[in-house]
Amino acid sequence: MLIFCGGGQISTSQKVVTDIEQKTALPPLGFGTADLKGDIREIVLNAIQSGYRLIDTAAVYGSEEAVGKAIREAADRGLVRREALTVQTKLAPDSHGYYKTLQGFEESLNRLRLDYIDVYLIHWPVGRGEEETYREKNMETWQAFAELKSKGRIRHVGVCNFLERHLLDLIGSGYGCPEINQLELHPGYQQRGLVRFCRERGIVVEAWSPMGRGILDSKKFIAIAAKYGKDIGQLALRWSIQKGFIPLTRSSSLRRIAGNMDIFGFEILREDMEELDALNTNDGYMDIWSYKRQQMY
Q: Is 116 a catalytic residue?
C-alpha cells in the first residue's frame, strides 16, 4: 500500500519533493499523453530527457504504443533505466468485468511492449451501457487487478474519477483499497471533500488537468505568478505540489515541457496559497458524458 503524503503547508520546496517521492514511492510530477498532437514517441522522449519519470497513458488515448517506443529508446540510448521510470496506464471503460479486464491488461502490455506495468488504473467508475450493473462489473475488475498485482504484473493499482461511493465499493470488496485516485484538480476545481476522503484512507491523489481552464487567466492568478517570476502554468503545478497532489502536465512544446519541470526551486507562501485556494468554484470544466454518468450513478 502506498502511503499518502498528507496535506498542509511545507516549509521548503525540497521537503515537498522528498515527502512525495519517499512516502508514495512515486515521482512528484508526471507527464500525460491524452490528446497529444504530433509525434508522441518524440514528445515522450523529450519529456524523459527533461527529467520526467512518471509517464501517464491509457488504452483510450491511443498513445500506449508510442509511449512504449519512447521508453525503450530512452533505455537503449542510456538516458534512463526502465526501472527508474513509472509507467502508468488505464483500463478502457468498455473493458470492465473479470475476463475483459485480463484481456484489456494484456492488450495494453502488448502495445507498450513491457514486462510489467508500474501503475494500472480503472479509467472511469461507470462504463457506457453499464449504468445498472457497474457495481458488479467494478468488483470483478478489481478482483482481476488484485490477481495481476499478486503475480507481480502490476506494481500499484488504483482508479480515476472515482467518487466516495465508488471507492467504498472497492474498499469493501476484500481485494484491497485503491492506492491511487486520479482526479481533475486545479485551483478552480478542488474537490476538497473527495480529497479529504482519499487522504483519510491513505489513497494517493493525482491531479489531471492541473492547470484547468479560464481561472488561471484571472488577474489575481497572473499577479501571483508574476510575484514569483513564474508563468501561470508553473504556479498551478506548484500549487498542486504543495497541496500534496501529483500533477500530470502535458505539452508538445519542448520549451513548455522543460519549463513545467522548473517548479521545485520556489515555494508559494502561505498567504498566496490561501489566495489561490479562494479561487475554488467547484465547477469542473470537462463537459463530457463520462463525467455526467459518474455523478448520476
A: no
